[in-house]
Amino acid sequence: MSVELNDADESFITGLRDILPAAAFLEASDTFLTEPRGRYKGKGVVVAPDTTEQVAALVKACYDARVGIVPHGGGTGLVGAQVLTEGRIPVILSLSRMTKVREIYPEEGVMIADAGAVLADLQQAARDAGKMFALSLGSEGTARIGGLLSTNAGGLNVLRYGTARAQCLGLEVVTPEGEIWHGLTRLHKDNTGYDLRDIFIGAEGTLGVITGAALKLATIPAVEATALLAVESPAAALSLLSLSRDIVGEGVSGFELMSRVGFEFLMETGLLQASPLQPLPDWQVLLRIGLPAGADVEAVLEHIFTAASERGLVYDGLIATTLAEAERLWTIRETIPEGNRLIGSVASHDISLPLSRIPDFIPEAARRIHDVAPLRINCFGHLGDGNLHYNAFPRAGENRAIYEGIRSQISRIVHDLAVEMGGSFSAEHGVGRLKVGDVERYSDPVRLNMMRRIKAVLDPNGIMNPGAMLR
Amino acid sequence: MSVELNDADESFITGLRDILPAAAFLEASDTFLTEPRGRYKGKGVVVAPDTTEQVAALVKACYDARVGIVPHGGGTGLVGAQVLTEGRIPVILSLSRMTKVREIYPEEGVMIADAGAVLADLQQAARDAGKMFALSLGSEGTARIGGLLSTNAGGLNVLRYGTARAQCLGLEVVTPEGEIWHGLTRLHKDNTGYDLRDIFIGAEGTLGVITGAALKLATIPAVEATALLAVESPAAALSLLSLSRDIVGEGVSGFELMSRVGFEFLMETGLLQASPLQPLPDWQVLLRIGLPAGADVEAVLEHIFTAASERGLVYDGLIATTLAEAERLWTIRETIPEGNRLIGSVASHDISLPLSRIPDFIPEAARRIHDVAPLRINCFGHLGDGNLHYNAFPRAGENRAIYEGIRSQISRIVHDLAVEMGGSFSAEHGVGRLKVGDVERYSDPVRLNMMRRIKAVLDPNGIMNPGAMLR
C-alpha cells in the first residue's frame, strides 16, 4: 500500500522557485540537519515559507510530486523527529520565518500565534499583556510553538497547567494534500465534531503541518514561593506531594525530584559549587507553590514543611526567601540536563509511571541495570506528573563509548519495566525516529492498527515526516 | 462508498442469544426509545452486555451482519444521539449493566470505572475516597460516564476543571470491528502516538463503544463560598469575571449568568417563591470561589464584591453565609431548565462565543429574532466558558405550537450569528441527530472532509450510531 517517494531534486526545487519567494530558500546548515544529542545527521532541502498560503502551496507541490516533508520548528526535539537520515531527499519545511503573535485577547485569556513563534517570545508577549503562557521548559529560548505542540511538550509547569495540549484551544493546519484547516478558535467549549485538534497535537508532523495556534493564557499567580526539601526516599516524596496537594490543591505548581547523583554530576562538571543542603541528601524535592493575592505563601510553605517533618517525610530543607534565591534553586534543577550532557550518558530515558509504582520502579530498574553493567543512575524529573528522566552513565573516569554495545539493552530493560508497571516509554519527548521500534513493541495492537489507518487516510501519499512515529 | 445496513431481525437476535446471557436482552421500553425533549422516538432491540468481552462479541456480530448499533448510556443527551428514528432496526447497546467502579487510587488521583457507571455514583465514590470527581451537571443522577465522555459533557465545573475530556486519562473502547483497545492508563503523561482517546471523547458513539474510563480525581477545595450578584449588563458580568480571576485565579470555580426572564419563568411556574434580590435585577451572576485550607474565603468574596462595586460592575448582591444558603442559590440556577421546560421553548440553543463577543451577541440575536416574532428570550449559562443557553419562548398566555413553523428559522438566526462572531452552534450538547445539518452548514470543509475520512476508516461498515454526527 505504501507509495514510493521521490527526491526533492533540482527540477523539483526549480519548480518551487516559481511559487515561493527567493527568501524562502535557506541554506541547509547544521541548524536544520543535526539534533541536540548528536545521534542523527539529517538531509534535505530547506524551505521556509512566510505565510500559511505559502506552506499550503509548498505542501501541495510535494503532494503532487510525492516528495517527503520534514517539518522543522526550533530543532530542539530529543527523539530525531526533525531529521530524516535515510531514503529520498525531503523538503525540510522550516517555520522559522513565521514567528508573529497574530492577536492577543488578555481579557479572554487567548493568544493566537504563528507556529514558528519561539516559546520565550510567547511567554514575554503574555507577560506584556498581564497574563502568563504557562508552557515552560529548558529549550524555551529556541523551541517554536508548532514543534512544541507537535511533540505535546511537557516541562516544568505540567502539574498545574498541563502539557502543551492543555494550553491549546485551536489550530491552523496545512493538510498533507496542501489544504488549509482554519481551526484557530478562541472558544473554550465547542462540541461539533471529532476532536481533530488533539490528533494533530502530538502527531510529530506526520499528519500535517501546524501553521498557527490559539493558545490559552493563565492568570499570573500573585505570590509564589519555592522550597528545597530533603526526603528519605521517592516514596516519602510522593507522600509529600499528596500532603502538599491536600493543603493547597492546584497551588502546587512545581514538584521536581532530584537524586544525589544529579548533584554530584553538577559539582563534578563545575556547574555547581556546593549543594545548598549539607550533607548532600540522597533525594531532594524542589517544590513551588503559587497562590492568589492576599495569601501568605511562605507561611503556607512553612506549614507544609512542618506537617511533612512531623510525618517523617522531610528531614532537612530551606525556603527561598527572595526571588533571586528561588531562581537559583530552579537554575540548579534546569542545569541537571547540562550536567548529564557533560558526563555523557550511556542511555537516557523519559518514562512515566502510575504515581504509586514509582517507589518500586526506581530500585528495581537499577537492580536490573546493575545485573548488566556497573552504571551510575541519575534519576530525576517531574515527579508530580509521574515522569522520570532515568538515565544511565559510566562510572567516574570511564568513557561512555565502552558501553556503546549495551546501550539498546539498557533501554530495553528500562522500557520493559516501565511498561510492565503500567507506564510509558516516552512521557514527554515523543517517538520521533528514536522510538519507532518501541511503539511497535509496546503499543496495544488495536491502537497501533487505528493509528496506521488514520495516518494512511489523512496522508495518502505518505509524504509527512516519513519514518517518524510509524514506519 | 456507503454500505447498506441490515435489520436486527429475529434471526440475528436468535444468533446473539448463543453468545450473550439471557439477562442481556432487555425490553425496548421508553427509557431506551425516547429522549428528554420528546422530539424523537427511536426504535431498536435493546441488548445490555455486562462485560467488555460481551460488548466486543456483540459488536463483532453486528459488524459481520452489518447491523447498526446505537450506544445507550443514561439517555439524557439533548440532541438525539441516543435514538435512531429511521432506517434499519439497530441494536441499542445499553451500558446499564456495566456500572462498577473497577479501581480507585486516591493518592494518584485516579479512578477507573465501567462506562455505565452513573455520574452521581462516581462523585460519591470519589468523596468516599477523600477526593472529588469534578464533572457535575443537572442530569448527574441518571447520566452515565460513557455517554458523558462520548458527548464531552460540560456542566457547572468546566471553568475550573474543564469538560469531560479534561477529566479523563484513558479509555477502554470496543472498535466497530469488535476488537478491544485496552487504553485504561493511569498516566498523566504519555507521548507515544496519536491521541486516540480524544478522538473517541466527543465522537457520540460513531467510532466505537466506550466500555471503561480512567478518570482524574481532584482535591476537594477546603473552603467554598457563593455570592449572588446583580450586574448592569453582560459586559459588566465579563468584567466581573476578569476581576475575580485577577484576584483568585483558578479559585473562581463557578460563574453563571442568569437573566430576568429566567427568574420570571421560575416564579410564573411556581418553582421559586421570590427573587433573593429585590427588585429583580435584569442580570445576575452566581459566583463560587473555592480556596485551599486557611484562606478566609468569605473575606475574599467580600473583597471581590467591594472592588466590583467600586468599579460600578455590581450594584446589589448577597453572600451565602451558610452551606444551606449556598445550596439554595445553586438550586435556583439548576432549576432554570425545568422552568424553561414548563413554559415550553420555541427553540433552544447551546452556543458558545469568544468571551469578548458576548455583550454584542445577546442584544443582536434578540433584535434579529424580534424581527421575526415577538418571542421572550431566556439567556443564561456558563458565562466563564463563553457558553450561553439562548432559548426563545412564546409570550405569556401563548402556546409554543403557534410558532412551530418558525422554529428552524429562529435556530438558523441564532446559529448564523454565533458562527459569524467566531462562535459555535453547539458548545456542550453535541451534534447527535438534531444538528447534523448544522455540522454540514457551518464546518470548515477541510475539517469535515477529515472527519468523514476518519469515520470511514475506523468504522468501515458504517454500523456505529448511523446518522449521528455525520450523514
Automatic annotation (TrEMBL), chains A, B:
SUPFAM superfamilies: FAD-binding/transporter-associated domain-like, FAD-linked oxidases, C-terminal domain. Signal peptide: none annotated. Residues 38-220 form the FAD-binding PCMH-type domain. It comes from the Bacteria. Keywords: FAD, Flavoprotein. The keyword Flavoprotein applies. One of its GO terms (molecular function) is FAD binding. Its cofactor is FAD. GO terms for biological process: respiratory electron transport chain. InterPro entries: FAD-bd_oxidored_4_C, FAD-bd_PCMH, FAD-bd_PCMH-like_sf, FAD-bd_PCMH_sub1, FAD-bd_PCMH_sub2, FAD-linked_Oxase-like_C, FAD-oxidored/transferase_4, Oxid_FAD_bind_N. Belongs to the FAD-binding oxidoreductase/transferase type 4 family. This is FAD linked oxidase-like protein. It comes from Ketogulonicigenium robustum.
